[in-house]
Design goal:
Rossmann fold; seven-stranded parallel β-sheet
């Protein structure tokens, strides 16, 4: 995860977005200094509740856009799900939930849960009953199951996010799950979708979920450049990956 290397073209500080002091403090503590170009373009409109369709390369800080946007607007009510974030793999769900936890460090009353398939659903139900979440990060199939059996109510969901939306909407079974979940949320909500690749067909499909969205496309490789992004990788056997993710 890039933290310090972001320098946008018109870069200002995060404090110029007039965020909650507790949220700004967490952003600074996480080592973020300047918004990336994507963050600079998206966040000011997104925190006003506007729908967002954003396509940009990986590593440009798209995750922080929706994490900051949701936490800025969320007025947590105990036991109420105010935001849903869907993604296509458990690894990504885990990473996103970790970002929510980092950025909500000083927002004491915000609770986040991560749910995905391949884990005993009974155990998940018990955990959700013990600590009902304000924010749910999930893979579509498992969230649909938990919402349909009444474990989680999405009737008060104000923010609906798809990360790597192309992966979910191109797979027909996953798309059907996303649509079912979408129908369980209120009509009047903010919808944000993020992807690294977006075909014309998929763009049209995404917009069917949205109301006059702000669209940010970075098709031109030279338009947005990354400075100071350092990437590391660890070579692991498949069986070791989840354990190592937990350690990180």
């Amino acid at each position: 995860v890039a933290k310090k290397g972001y320098v946008g073209i018109h870069s200002t500080g995060f404090r110029d977005f007039l965020l909650k002091p507790e949220l700004l403090r967490a952003i600074v503590d996480c080592g973020f200094e300047h918004p990336s170009e994507v963050q600079h373009e998206c966040i000011p409109q997104a925190i006003l509740g506007m729908d967002v369709l954003c396509q940009a390369k990986s590593g440009m800080g798209k995750t922080a856009v929706f994490v900051i946007t949701v936490l800025q607007q969320l007025d947590p009510v105990p036991g109420e799900v105010g935001a849903v974030v869907l993604c296509h793999t458990r690894e990504l769900a885990y990473q996103i939930s970790h970002e929510f936890e980092r950025f909500s460090t000083f927002l004491g009353d915000v609770t986040t849960a991560v749910v995905f398939g391949g884990v005993n659903i009974k155990t998940q139900k018990e955990q959700l009953a013990l600590q009902p979440p304000n924010i749910v990060v999930a893979t579509p199939g498992r969230l649909k199951a938990l919402a349909m059996d009444g474990t989680l109510s999405l009737k008060k969901c104000a923010h609906f996010v798809l990360d790597e939306c192309d992966k979910m909407l191109e797979a027909l079974d996953m798309r059907a799950d996303v649509q079912e979940i979408f129908k369980m949320t209120p009509h009047d909500k903010q919808v944000m979708m993020f992807t690294a690749t977006l075909s014309k067909e998929l763009r049209a499909l995404c917009k069917k979920f949205m109301n006059d969205p702000m669209e940010i496309f970075v098709d031109d490789e030279t338009k947005l450049t990354l400075h100071g992004l350092v990437q590391h990788y660890i070579k692991l056997e498949e069986s070791e990956k989840n354990r190592k993710l937990n350690d990180l």
